Amino acid sequence: MRNWRHTCVTDSWRDCRDARHFALLSTFVSSVLLSALCAAGSVGSGAQVPAPSYDLIIRRGTVLDGSGIPRYRADVGIANGFVARVGDLANARATEEIDATGLFVAPGFINIHSHASVDALPTAENMLTQGVTTEILNPDGGGPTDLGEQMRRVESLGTALNVGPYIGFNSIWVQVVGPDDRRATPAEIERMRGLIVAGLEYGAWGVSAGLDYKPAYYAQVEDIVRVIEPAAAWRTNFPNHDRLTPESGFSSRAGVGETISIGERAGVAPVVTHMKSQGVEQGDAAKLLAMMDAATARGHYTAADAYPYTAGQTGLGALLVPAWAQDGGRDKMLARFSDPVQRPRIVAEIEQAMKARFSGPEGVYLPATKRQLTEVMREQNASAGETVVRILEQGNTAAILRFGAEADVIRILQHPTTSIACDCGASTETRQHPRAWGTYPRVLGHYVRETGALTWEDAIRKMTALPAATVGLVDRGYLAPGMWADIAIFDPRTVIDHATYEDAGQLSEGIRFVLVNGRVALREGRVTGEKAGLTLRRTRWMPTRPMTTGPRTASSQRGANAGERTITIDVQQGPRDATARGVFKAAFRDEKSGWDATDFGVLQSYGEWRSFTARIVMRPSGASHAATVTIDKGVPHVALDGRVLQ
């Protein structure tokens, strides 16, 4: 089993020294929670060695570090899977070097809306060639409810990417309530709350939902809030595929408003996932974004993710067949299709939804057969709704649905809290949406280089540090010392997508190298077969948060336990600084052992929460390790192992 990080929880740091993994509980430092999690293994002897050695050095590249600050020239030194130093490494040596002259060097891209096939993760060619290094699975409320079993399967097969799970509301609803249109009983709500908690205790990166999909569509807002409100204690997020109803006129505004309302009432951060302004509301993106801004101004941080296309993909009937006709599942739906009284009503309501959401049958494409719905209509001499019913009677099939306007896509992509996420994942299926093969290079090549809708710095921020903050990652998303070495190296002159709706399986170009946890997963545009990906689990001290942009500090001094150790933290970072600076050190009673931090990474700040990365140099050995340090007053009574501290 590949465990990305083992944490030793103890009242004596010395007990963990041999393992070189350590965690310091809140009793050590001013009654706050402090975790310093170190990678096993040495990267040399720190400052005592005049020419430090690394596993790999990326030389002469232009760094876009994920923060959004202006790009700069630097070398990047990698050791033991982590970024050890960013700067001038002319005098350093490494086992391997990559010449990044003329190339951009960025953190690996983080896809927080992934429908990855577990069987495709060992190679993940379609994602690595887009620069993606981390995928968060089970979006839209889907996936298994047993996250441990899901991640064990990923680990048994191996994965070229890092993966972590959401816990899916839809899956929980189906498991407990079933396929019928009915209210959940109080006992069922308690069972569902328990499954939410179990998923979060395992390490889920949020509670995802797809309220537009049946049978979760049947859940009433009050019940949804009751089910997910235990997640508030985890300070996590609620990404939801908005529910568009015929009663609202299939209004995106109503759907976004519901997502925000549920998040606010449940105490979790709403995320408008694969955000869009659909059908008859095309051109209204500014109004949707204003709703998000208003929620954030009320004190409920709200974010979004989006992909750079004006069409999406889902099951042909999922969003077209009326909810009442899907009540009870597929068999009952087919029985209603066969009813001569109900069929005309179903056909009419399919056409109503198609017109309101997707601009009519011209907006429906069937990738499995590579045909427009209008072609099939002509062949069958049938109306749009009747044709859909006939296709569904033969079996389920996917549909690409054109929902919106390019101007809305641009406006949504430009919003400061919108992450880039492809609504796709590792896959070998080529008859699908082109987003699975081209999302990230399309943003970089088209929306940055060709149209200037985004800057290089902001586009990379939206692919790295912003999605990391949205789900709660603390040690990925920035290219800085102490961060895991997930890195994408690309050519800004050539990066572009080639996938189309008619031929979705065309690889993108321009992503030259990809590193996953310090190992080369893509070399000169070709996958290497490395399975360096890890399964990632979230903890309570990894909150969903806005990206840190202003000046920030982290300080806590002279925390001690029975006189055995003194720990000092005094770290600062300015809004235009690439990295933090300051002091993080420990002295033990013998005054000869302890540690000093050097090469600080990014200091992240949110309320009473602080986190930074650094290199820790051990005394007296001089061995150094990557570390992530978190000071969290937001959860004062929870230890690293979940125990309650009173």
Account of the 3D structure:
The chain is of the alpha/beta class and 646 residues long. Among the domains are: 106-310 and 403-517, TIM Barrel (Alpha-Beta Barrel), CATH 3.20.20.140; 315-402, no CATH class. It contains 16 helices and 32 strands. Strands 1, 2, 3, 26, 27, 28, 29, 30, 31 and 32 form a ten-stranded mixed beta sheet that branches. Strands 4, 5, 6, 7, 8, 22, 23, 24 and 25 form a nine-stranded mixed beta sheet that branches. It has a six-stranded parallel beta sheet with strand order 12-13-14-15-16-21, sandwiched between helices. Strand 24 (519-523) and strand 25 (526-527) form a beta hairpin. Helix 3 crosses helix 4 (186-202) and helix 6 packs parallel to helix 7 (285-297). The two termini are 34 Å apart.
Topology:
Layout: E1 9-10, E2 23-29, E3 32-38, E4 53-63, E5 72-79, E6 82-87, E7 93-99, E8 104-107, E9 109-114, H1 125-128, E10 132-137, H2 147-157, E11 162-165, E12 167-168, H3 169-176, H4 186-202, E13 207-210, H5 221-228, E14 237-241, H6 252-266, E15 269-272, H7 285-297, E16 303-306, E17 311-315, H8 323-326, H9 330-338, H10 342-358, E18 364-366, E19 371-372, H11 373-380, H12 384-394, E20 398-402, H13 406-414, E21 418-420, H14 435-450, H15 456-463, H16 465-471, E22 487-490, E23 511-516, E24 519-523, E25 526-527, E26 552-559, E27 565-573, E28 581-588, E29 594-598, E30 603-606, E31 609-619, E32 624-632
Parallel strand pairs: 1-2, 4-7, 4-8, 9-10, 10-11, 12-13, 13-14, 14-15, 15-16, 16-21
Antiparallel strand pairs: 2-3, 3-32, 4-5, 5-6, 8-22, 17-20, 18-19, 18-20, 22-23, 23-24, 24-25, 26-27, 27-28, 28-29, 29-31, 30-31, 31-32
Helix pairs in contact: 3-4, 4-5, 5-6, 6-7, 10-12, 14-15
